[in-house]
Design brief:
Blueprint: E1 6-13, E2 18-24, H1 26-34, H2 40-49, H3 60-69, H4 78-85, H5 92-95, E3 110-112, E4 122-124, E5 139-143, H6 145-149, E6 168-171, E7 176-178, H7 181-190, E8 200-206, E9 214-220, E10 223-229, H8 237-250, H9 254-259, H10 277-280, E11 289-296, E12 301-308, H11 309-316, H12 323-329, H13 339-349, E13 358-359, E14 373-374, E15 380-384, E16 393-394, E17 408-414, E18 416-417, E19 431-435, E20 440-442, H14 448-455, E21 462-469, H15 471-483, H16 487-492, E22 516-517
Parallel strand pairs: 4-17, 5-16, 13-14
Antiparallel strand pairs: 1-2, 1-8, 2-6, 3-4, 3-5, 6-7, 8-9, 9-10, 11-12, 11-21, 12-19, 15-17, 18-22, 19-20
Amino acid sequence: MEETPFSLRLLVDEKRNKVVLAEACRDFVDVLFSLLTLPMGTIVRLLQKHKQQPMRLGCFNNIYKSVSDMTIDDFETEACRTMLLYPRSIKEIHCRRLKLNIDDTEATKFFTCPLFPRSCKKYSNFNTSRCSCGDLMTREFQVSEEDQLGSPIGNNDDGVFVSCRSSYIVTDDLRVTLSSLGVISKELNLLGYADFDDVKEILLDAGIKEVPSFYYTIYLGTLTFIAMLCLGSCLSLGNQVLTLLGCLFTSDAPLTDTFLRKHCMAMKSKMLTPLVQEARVAGEVNEVVTLKVYVRKSDKAILYAECREEFVDFLFTFLVIPLEFAWELSVDHLNMGCVGNLRRSVKELSFEQRREAMLPYYYSCRIQLLDVVIQETPEYECLVSRRSYNSSRLSKTIKKSVLGDGERVAKLTPVVTSDSASIGLVKGETNFIVSDDLVVTAMNSSSTISLLSKLQMNISDIEEQMISIGKAQAISLLRASLITTSALSNGLSNFLSKMKLKEAAPSTFKIPKSEKIL
């Protein structure tokens, strides 16, 4: 891939060591907006690998590590574990058109049974899946990006998330608008700058590839000089964007912290305002899951919970929700760095009229507590010759008019398994322990006595309660997991019942028999 100029013009207050604002090209704004499409699990994985500034994101690191520490036997299939550790976005094809894509998740692949099309006509996106005949689905097929999307993808001249070719103004707190003299003057005036005497212009140029150096061109009146800072590949543009991603959650000035101070602050736990169900949560769903929580009476902290597989499935789906919808599902008023500013800018500038919280079709759950839409199950067709089974391409539809002598069309649907009454990610009929900071452990692989000893609890200060988790509780728990390290206490304490355990009805949640899509 050729190196493509990728520039960002910063207006800097050198005395305060602060970015006042930036002027960016469409390509940079596309990269900026793409951060919101990343699944939360991908963000955790990328930030953990980021050598400059590894950071923790609320309780999400613990959720991710719980999946990583659990064995394949704890999941319905090996694919279930893989799709949580490497979650996919429905925007992945669009993001591959970016000039810089920091998501290193492998592109979606399609596999069929080796017996296709003679008998088996199923496909899977994971080569660890087994066909209904028992064989591993290892025969790979190609599916065009247009067929995967179900619509034209556009060309390289089109923007990915924004279409206007004009430059954009990005404030230090990541509010993005189209550039104009009026916008620049207004921003400078609001920040207390009457003229350009106290600010200097810095031009950042870099290629798309890992580069051995960064060039800062600093304009001082009529004098221009170039300071070449040999920062090594660790400070390539990709790593700068990763730093910016971390600062998105923790900083009120992400551009300053990324490009001048070159660090992002540690994320601080925050106090949550109680979620008022009547005022803020509309469309309450009927599904409810019940779990037993152990509460410290002295301060009402929830130390841990005992639950079944349906609640763990719900927690693990936090990893696959894109950032923009994690923020929106948290009722839009979550104070989390500059995520809100960036999301509001997307709504104003993106050519997509409506963006809903949608997940790929294989993220089915036992119970749906959040307003997340699951993608329709896609079906594909394959042109099969009378003499050969070597066709390796699937299409959304194949016109019958193109069929030659002896050729036929074979329809493929996703492979499913119906050998279990449970439908979800982790295996059914399993009890789990969830700690306050959302470490999930299967009780068949841990000692409850060891947990009690680790918590050093005063047994007389502990009481058991049953709590029902519906939509309001689910949203509150999601909010808490994003910005605190005590998600159960911060997210659910407001909903604790005053009933004693003996007064609470036991969990009666039943898993309907159904098929699990792989």
